[in-house]
Here is the input.
Amino acid sequence: QVQLQESGPGLVKPSQTLSLTCTVSGGSISSGDYYWSWIRQHPGKGLEWIGYIYYSGRTYYNPSLKSRLTISVATSTNQFSLNLSSVTAADTAVYYCARRVAALAMFDPWGQGTLVTVSS
Amino acid sequence: QSALTQPASVSGSPGQSITISCTGTSSDVGGYNYVSWYQQHPGKAPKLMIYGVSNRPSGVSNRFSGSKSGNTASLTISGLQAEDAGDYYCSSYTASGLVVFGGGTKLTVL
Here is the structure.
């Protein structure tokens, strides 16, 4: 059974880069059947799709974040990562990683989520 | 890309049925049969409840059903139970190859 786990700093200073890693266990990130995704949720708000990456490195980004966003994949360690630059308080959110089934555009499973606060 | 439109809240009594709508455009909901629904309880990660408009993953109660008409998808929960309370989100594949979520609906079981 595939499981995903986010890791990274819980506190980031404004203007710095937010970096998170998602470790995939119980399955290979190199499977061509999936995209590996980041989704965030601002406190008390709804879900916002950030972007996803295919094992080959092909990326798809939310246009509203594209200029600050980099998602990468490390097949050797079965991990994928999120880098969001020039963060502000508006980037404070719970960040989830999730597996997207390529053929169906559905997200399952999800990681437990990690709260990242942007504050000085 | 604009978020899909969901009602902010719905409510129902135990045993009743409720329906949550999710309205998009012909470039997302109306153009593809790739609408999914997620249930989220406070402090928890979302859980997939419906995919491909009307398909239930293994383990999801058959009280949950999905449908679509034009640019609007719907999630129906029949025989409402207390544990169904929470937030529900729809999502859809888009013509750009991306994904968009709805704003979420808070379900209250009275």
Observations:
- The interface with chain A takes residues 1, 3, 32, 34, 36, 38, 45-48, 51-52, 57, 89, 91-93, 97-104 of chain B (CB under 8 Å).
